[in-house]
Model the fold of this input.
Amino acid sequence: MNLRKKPLSVGVLTLALAVTLAACGGGAHGGGAANGAYDKNATVNIGSLYEPQNLDNTAGGGQGVTEALNGNVYEGLFRLTDAGKVEKLLAQDYKVSGDGLTYTFTLRDGVTFHSGKKLTSQDVKYSLEKVLAKDSQSARKADLEVVKDIATPDAKTVRVTLSKKSVSFVYNLSYVWVINSQAKELKTTEDGTGPYKLNKWTRGSALSLDRFAGYWGDAAKNKQVVFHYYKDATALNNALLTNGVDVVTSEQSPDALDQFKSQRNYKVNDGNSTTKLLLAFNDKAKPFTDVKVRQAVSAAIDDKKLLDSVWGGYGKLIGSMVPPTDPWYEDLTKVNAYDVDKAKKLLAEAGYAKGFSFTLDTPNYDPHPTVATFIKSQLAKVGITVEINTITPDQWYTKVYKNHDFTATLQEHVNDRDLVWYGNPDFYWGYDDKQVQNWIEQAERASTTDEQTELLKKANRKTAEDAASDWLYLYPQIVVANSKLSGYPVNGLNSQFFAYNIEKR
Done:
């Protein structure tokens, strides 16, 4: 599970990141000049607010390390494309046994790490074990704990045996970076197989990647990319306006978009991402142990008004944990829709006709303080008093995520396909429904993806009907670029930003 950790500084009622259907850009890649030769030796300057905490995605590197290194420096056996499809990458082929428990992978020929070492099955084994290690902070560690044994019968073959069927196993492998088993100091250096190798990382400033001459696949379409890091959205936008950067990976201020839309030199792309903003209840803490109370709070908040006031026409309401890019998406916005009279009725039925009070633990970076104030004013109309307790991301992690010491909180959840957390009663929000747990378990053991989809649709609808959380909205994913650029990703699924297809004219 990835949570957004980076504090953002933007204007009043403006914010932070993530998902909406393509409107301006469309497709999986950004636009730009349609014709004309591009500069194969160009340096592409990329502007971002998300600097890595370190360069190891199993050691708390954060979304910044995914954005910069995933697919660019490191590759997996499989790749999750910007359009949300899983395709073979370092795996030339694979076979699954009849009982669905054994996966045999054949590696591509001619793949070398940036250090020059040849890729072997031992490196894949090491990389999987690194994700599964006791101290691993990988977002997919729990999903991959079905791995029972990893065998390497020869240098090109990896055989993985599972303890139980996992229809998502290949998808989950797209998150596993294949790393040189002999590499050291991975928090500050790298040794991947991708189209770029690390040149230099200057903390607090920039991270540069150079085209890797020994890459096994098609060479990157530019010679170098440099990720430039900024503390706030205003500085980032100014860099784009003054040609300090060529593209912004995720626009944070809707108020700034008009200055780009009005100029032919820029293109604004409205793509899909997967970040949900949640009002997460502690379903094991009163009064949120009562489903009617959760339903009432959800019905008392005008999510559309909140989204419009924050993002002014961007973003999307979905009414559940599942974004449109997930296979089991359904529009559930009519479940627990905004209805003040219904909210009051539900509160009365739950024994809270005069309302109640609760504390809302709120991370101290945008959009949370603004959203918390909005929620406080909305719930006051139905007699509920909200005390806002503003905390740092580190305090949130300890107090809420680890210790479950909260009544309700605000938080962003970045990953796709993360409905499954509602099948874990020990997760921080404490939702505990045996039917949902059963559906989610059955879905992972399904024989086909169609069967998996139908089961997860049932689980999604039940969590929505139970108001397990209040899913306030999906963030927009807005990529703004100089019109001389093309080939950049616009969706940013799970915060990845593939740079190798970017052409600069």
